[in-house]
UniProtKB/TrEMBL annotation:
A UniProt-annotated Pfam family: Hexapep_2
Official protein name in the record: DapH/DapD/GlmU-related protein
InterPro entries reported for this sequence: Hexapep, Trans_hexapeptide_repeat, Trimer_LpxA-like_sf
Length: 168
């Protein structure tokens, strides 16, 4: 189970009530900064935008590929360790707006993690150090350190022990 905080809403669906949960101006500022970061080919500049303007925790030498989409409303809830790669067109979410509730959850990505292109990381997920996420994976639960996972639904392809044996 993902580690999310749940908030019930009354009346229209929770997305319709978006600006009761987050400031319109914060969303607008985040939108502009995220769009700049998505298209810039300069990794140091991209990481600076994330760290300084969005208050994300981003480790040294971490690389966000072109078109990565970080959470628009709560990017400060994202933490990525050092020397990790976030693949092309990956989405990292820290919120879910549902009919009767919305959920918020931190996303923690460890050191030296490889996330393949077109993956989606859902709120409340922790990905351990040196984990590998196959392209196109929907990460809907925690991933153990050193594990290779993939697919939708996500499943373990190799455990950390199997990965270390394959490298030898």
């Amino acid at each position: 189970m993902r580690n999310t905080e749940r908030y019930q809403v009354n009346g229209p669906n929770s997305l319709w009530q978006l600006y009761k949960t987050v400031s319109f101006w914060k969303v607008m500022k985040n939108f502009v900064i995220i769009q700049l970061a998505r298209y810039t080919p300069f990794l140091p500049m991209k990481n600076w935008l994330y760290r300084v303007c969005l208050r994300m925790k981003v480790g040294e030498q971490t690389a966000f590929a072109l078109m990565v989409m970080v959470d628009l409303m709560f990017p400060e809830r994202i933490s990525v360790g050092k020397n990790s790669i976030i693949g092309y067109h990956t989405t990292i979410l820290t919120h879910e707006y549902l009919i009767d509730e919305y959920r918020l959850g931190d996303v923690t990505i460890g050191n030296e993690v490889m996330i393949g292109a077109n993956s989606t990381i859902l709120p409340g997920v922790t990905i351990g150090d040196r984990a590998v996420i196959s392209a196109g994976t929907v990460v809907h639960k925690d991933v153990e350190a050193g594990t290779f996972v993939g697919g939708n639904p996500m499943r373990t392809i190799y455990t950390a022990e199997e990965m270390s044996k394959r490298k030898k």
